[in-house]
Write a structure and sequence with these properties.
Length: about 80
């Protein structure tokens, strides 16, 4: 495994969303959890691309609350 300075000088760095200590100079899968590695600085890129407006964010939050309430009601 390369040191952090060697990786930073080599170009883009890929890291695991769940294990930020896993850093590699090329894309692939995390050796710990097998998740796909993402380029450094894009950890929330997927969320940003999903939420393009405040209305979408509100709708996503409302759906999550509705699902949570439905599960809590059924668990009584």
């Amino acid at each position: 495994m390369e040191t952090t300075n060697q990786i930073q000088n080599a170009g883009p760095v890929y890291l695991c969303p769940c294990h930020p200590e896993v850093r590699q100079p090329d894309s692939g899968k995390c050796p710990k959890c097998r998740m796909h590695l993402v380029p450094e600085g894009t950890r929330f890129g997927m969320l940003r691309s999903m939420v393009k407006s405040p209305l979408q964010l509100f709708i996503m939050a409302a759906v999550m609350v509705a699902i949570t309430v439905a599960i809590m009601i059924t668990m009584r």
